[in-house]
Structures are given as C-alpha cells and as structure tokens.
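This section describes the prediction task in plain terms. A model, or a person checking by hand, is given the sequence of a single protein chain and must write out its three-dimensional structure as a string of tokens. No templates, partner chains or ligands are provided. The sample shown here is typical of the held-out split.
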Amino acid sequence: MSSDAASCRGCTTLLRQDNDSGLCSICAESGKLFVPEHVFHTPEVQVALAQHDLGPALAAGRRELGLRQRELGARLGLTQSQVSEIERGIHRLTDAEAIANALVVLGIPLKLVGFPSSAPGSVEGEDREAIAMWLRRHRSTTADHSTLAAGPVAPRRTVLRGGIAAVAVAATDSLLPITAPVAPARPMPSWAAAIDAAVRDPGAAMRAALSARPDGPLPATALRQRVSAATGQSLGSDFHALASTLPDLLGHVEAAAVEAARHGDPTSALVALSDTYSVGSWTLIKAGQIESAREAAGRSRRAAEEAGDRVRTAAAVRCEAEVAMCEGDCDRAVETALRATVHLPIRPDENTELAMHIRGAALLTAATAAARGGNRRTAYTYLNAAGDCARALGGTNASWLCTVFGDGNMGIHAGVVIPLELHDLRAAEANIPLMCLDVLPASLAERRGRAMIDVARVLAGLGDDPAATAALLEAETYAPDEVRNHRYTHALLPQLWRRETSGSGVREFAGRCGVGVVDPDGWS
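The expected answer:
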C-alpha cells in the first residue's frame, strides 16, 4: 500500500487503493456517512439546526460527499423528492425519530440542535431513542408526526434576517392558530434574565448544571424536593429566589430526563420536567416574557404527554391558555382552556379530586378570557361550571401543579375579576367586601396579591385613587415581587401619579416598583 493511501473518514484507518468509497468496511456497515464536522459550522446551517431544520445540513453534507439526492434519501428512508423539498425549504422534516436518525447518519454534532452530546451524564451520540425524546420536547415547528411537515415553513432568508426568535414567534405547537400578534414586550426584569436564558437554551442550562455536578444529574429524591421548593416559591411569588434556583433546576431536570431515557424508565423524570417548565412558564408570564413563557408551557405539555400523565397535560394546556390571553387572543385562550379539560380523566378512580381541581381552574381561565373578549354570556356559563367544580371539592382551597382553585378563588373571580373584565366596575366594587382572602392558605401569597391588584384596578377606574393606592400597598404586603413587577401595577402608576395627593405614598411605591417619573404625563 502506498504512503499516500487515503484514510477512512469515519475512523481514519488507511484504505485499500481500490477503495474509493472513503469508508472502511466496518464504518460502511454502520450505515453512517461521517460528514466532516466543519461542513455544519456555516452560519446558515447553524441557524437552521438551532430550529431543528435539517434542510441546509442535508444539502451541505450531500454536496461534501458528492451524493445524489436519491442516494442520500436511501440512507435516511426518504424519497428523492422529499430530500429535494427539505433542502429547498418547501417542507421540513418533523418526525423526531426521523430527525434523530438523520443526525446520527450524517454525524451532525448534537450540540447544534441544543443537545450537548459531550456533556457528563448525556447520552451517547448514537442513542437515537434518547435523541428523539429530547427533540420531541424541544422541537420548535408545528408537528403532525408525519415524515414531512404538513405545509411550508418560514423561508430561510427570514431566519437569517430575523434570527431564531423571529421564527419562534411565527411557529406554533398548538392545534389552534395564533391569530393575534404577540403583546409588546416589556423590559425584562433583571431577576428573569437567567430563567429566560435557560428556557431559550436548555442545552446550555444542562451543561451548566452538570458542570457543577460532574457525577451526573441529581438523584430522583433530591430532584423532586427541589421541584417542590420551586413550586412553593412560585405560589409564594418569590421571584428573586426563583431567579437563583430555577435555571439550575431546569438544567438538572433536562439531564435527568435524558439519563432516564437511556435506562428505559423516563416517567418520573418527565413528570419533574413538566412541573419545572410549568413553574418557568408562570414565572415568565409575570416577567412579561411571553414568547419564552409560551415555549416553557409547550415543553411542560410535551413532557406530560410523553409521561402519559393526563392531569399534568391538562394543567400545561391551561397554562398555554393563559399565555394566549396575555397575547391578547381571547378567543384562542377560551378554546385552549376548554381543550385542557378534554385531557382530564373522568373515571371515578382516576385522580378525581386533582382532576376536578384542574378542570375548575381551566374553566375559570375560559371565563376570564371570554369576559376580556366581551362575551358576557359565555363568561358566566364557564364561571358557573367552575363553581360546580368548587362545590364538588367541598370548599377546599388548595394548589396543585402551580394551579390555585377552590371557593376562595371562585369568590375572587365571580365577585371582582369577571365584572372587571366586562367593565362593570360598580358591580365589582360592590363585591369587594365579599372577597374572603383569609380562606386562602398563607402559602398562596401570589393569589392574594394578584386579587388586590384587581381591586386597585376597579377603584382606580372609578376615580377613587386613595383607595386604589391603599389596595396596592396591601397587595404589596402579601406578595411584594408579584405586585412590584406586575404589568397592571405599572399600568396603574402613571394614572395614580398624575392625580397624586400629598402623602399618598405613590411616589415611594413607584420607586419600589422600579418606575421613575420623567414628567407629569410620562414615565421612564
């Protein structure tokens, strides 16, 4: 064999002079193509892979190896026309197993799709099942579980011009289309930045979590304890505590789910994953980061679906309904909230109490969204149905899966929230004394604070600024982080400032909310 004999591009073994395939017999039998890694590190390919769009990667790898589309398709289980349409961006490969197979066959670095293949505790690069499980939780396009997407996707020039976030806004993982624009983003609070970053890049969150724990993910018991603690912090409206605990927890639950997939029993890890992303979504809603909140809610739902947990799936869909309401799409919020109830079991032996709890909360969301959209009859129809759920629970006021429900919350909605959303301020004002916040457990500080924000909205709308300010200050005693960061608080402050009286406390309260006055008619 001459000294200039070629080497196998898979294992670098020297090849026989008559071997022009570029692969030794062992690597050829593996079915992999071993495309050189540098091929996938161009800007266009990297941006597309970050969105799980394999079109540019397939084209680049095929050109590098001098393959025809039919030859590449034979390796991937696709026809020549399918490969052509994927490469041209007409259709997108969406089936998780098909994508995982393509990643392995072409040798695409998993870190380019957000999955750190070299991270401690991660799966081997050829574990197609675990890769597919990861992809199902993190795909960003409409999935119909077919080989190709059902319709065209955003042109790649849009991705390159607007970046990943631009396509994420356009994409939806819901059965219902997004028909309203995303609400204008508020400046991100400093405490929310790390949570937002962990949701946007779960691979980086996982690497960071594992780098601080080289022996692998947290044990199941420790993981559940931390998930429970984060849920309590969310219900207690302790955003600053969540800022320090939630990003690391997101990394650990991601790692635990991947590790559990290797051993064939991922259910408990998927449940922890769903619960943690639920906390993340509710927290990001409070921070005004609606795009990331939508992504977190979707991941919570997909993890619950994969675990076969119908109650958690319903809770996650209800969270998606709340996101839709924040986006201003009240019709979609109503439909999504009702869809949440479809997931719930109805047999008497299937978590009856918990299912009834989630059903009631979903119906309250539907009622609120209908009222906000101006549909009085629909709002009260769903409100009455939620009341039936509360009565069936026997008057308990509890929280499960970041969901608060019971007669206390029913009283808040029936008395104040629904009339407020229907702009019936006098009726809402008359019901304020009937609210019984004391029936809510002290741990539900977020619910108490949020109720008093709505009271302040009613009173300010009626021109009673001193009473509105007093309501906000009372709300602050229950849940400081909730009140100081809430969008409704920030909307009320300019109005209260313009009509401020001496000693009202509005100026000091605005300072605690991080809102500065620039002139009598504007705020910085």
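For orientation: DSSP finds 25 helices and four strands in the chain.
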